Amino acid sequence: MFLNLARLLSNGMEIKERRWKVPSLFWLPLFAFGALLFIVDVFQTQYNINPVRLQGEEVVFDQDSLKGFLIKTPGCRIPYMDPFDHTVKEFIHKEKKPVCNGGIPALFDSNLTSIYLLNSSLANYTDQNVSVLKCCYQPFHRQEPSEDDNDNKIQFDEKCIPFNITATITDEFIKVVCHINRAIVYTDFFSFVPIKTKKVKFETKPVNILIIGLDAVSRLNFHRQMPKTSEYLKNISSVELLGYNKVGDNTFPNLMPVLTGLSETELQKVCWNADNNHRFDNCPFIWKEYKSKGFVTSFGEDSSWMGIFNYMRKGFHEQPTDYMWGAFNRISENAIGNSHNMNVEECVGARQVYKVFLDYIKKFVTKMDLEERPYFSFYWGASLSHDYLNKPHLGDKHYYKFFRKLKENGHLDNTITIFMSDHGIRWGDIRQTYQGQMEERLPFVFIVLPEWYKGQYQNAYNNLLRNTRRLTTPYDLHETLKDFLNPAILHEALEKRYQDSPRGYSLFCEIPANRTCKIADIASHWCTCQQSVEVEKNSSLVIEAANFAVDYMNQQLEGYAQCSELTMNNITDARVMTHNEDILGGNEIKDFMIILETVPGNGVFEVTLRNTIGFNKTNQFEVMGTISRLNLYGKQSACITDFHLKLYCYCRSLLDLGN
């Protein structure tokens, strides 16, 4: 069970013994004051959304005009929610920092061009002189997979190159091994950014694109867990999208619209299919457009064993971008990964994985700026935040320092930075609360534009500010990335660019106030614009709907004899949702959102079912979107490889074992 906040406070207080004593009542106000300071410092309970001002115009919206809503338009109303609401406060606590490598520090470190010995660490490896240490480094690179192989192949150079206490590195990835008397005492991995491409001349000033993702962090949880980073982003005038609504269940269907403009279903038809062995080489990634214009391209992710294109998928044949860090991450985690927790290795050797990743990003950005190479980069981090609601707090200070250094060193002067997530936490106790359900659908997105860019494209920037209070989606981010590549279009009549109501709008064009989830192609199951009320979970209609959902899951599992048939065990929550376009017009349509438990396996699922009345006055149901799994399935579905059906499958072999 999670610790409650009061227990956290009491454990966090340490009162030193004094020579004089005072009445115990004296300590009560001091304790209360100390508790308040703790909450403000650790969790930043002061949570304000600043009014948005347009360049050269009056205030457009403020707290008074919104009256308890984040988004309040004719097409969408998303309620304001307190990050520390009493319904979720019990799930918020401090996580312990992982202890990497058993507390033994790294022997070597790296900078932009070299590796070097850390003298302060030497005593942890030998009590003799440094001369007994014999080290070498071995370059390696990603290897193209053969036709049927997964995209996880690495090729090492044959020779391990000896060095003393420092070495200048010209390779991209290296493995370091050190011996004492022929016994290996140290292994480490380092990544660098050698120049691979020719410099291209641009007719107009290009702007870099730096996208940094943090997996599974809702907008509210970002403000809860990372207050230092949040405050710094506000101080450098970042733009926060308050109505950014996810469009699919997990990472893949929420990032594909950003990177390709296509839904998961469309992607399968266009480029990711059996014809190319389910690889992604032919997909229309936005980085291909940037590459064709002369930009250097880079893609990286940590916890890459479950990466965007690799988890239950074949990945790429050819490397998709000029630089691809995932190969480095995979081999380093396999070789020296430690502090395994849930789905991730938290450490590689003596370093936390997310810190290694951020250090690589800094190297890339620094090298590209030094060499004056415009770039498009997309980086996705999962090791810190994928599995735990409260883990992001551990990275707050480091992310704050990361962005601050980029800013202070001038790396944001000609760079558009997007810091974002794909969705909120998808499982755990908080997901079975109404606020947790809403949060999961509303990830954070911050956009930082150079000051000169705002002035040069003032009308476009003003539209971006307006759109912070509109319903927005991953499809909109894709359209915006296209505009960054072709900024001349931002001088044109932006209000006339979209004659119809497309699925995706550039954020530089004002999104219509009457935009609904239906217009934006957000399935009812994921839509946060709906108003909802709790209904009796034991009503005959709710039970009928829940049984329909279980039958639906069993139908999806037909043909997979290794999976058990599911039956409904319990209904834990039920709500009915309304839509302006469907219900208020008088149609007999209701959307029920139900949380239910099935056996065997005690799977907890969240499903949205549309209920209509048929011609014979019978209830008819339709599953809207996909069914969400709210608790982990672990090894229950090890007998099946389909990554969609793993959510439902409980292997019959477990029944045979009596589990």
From TrEMBL:
InterPro entries: Alkaline_phosphatase_core_sf (IPR017850), DUF229 (IPR004245). GO terms for cellular component: extracellular space. CDD domains: ALP_like. The chain crosses the membrane at residues 25-43. It comes from the Eukaryota. The keyword Glycosyltransferase does not apply. Keywords: Membrane, Transmembrane, Transmembrane helix. This is DUF229 domain containing protein.
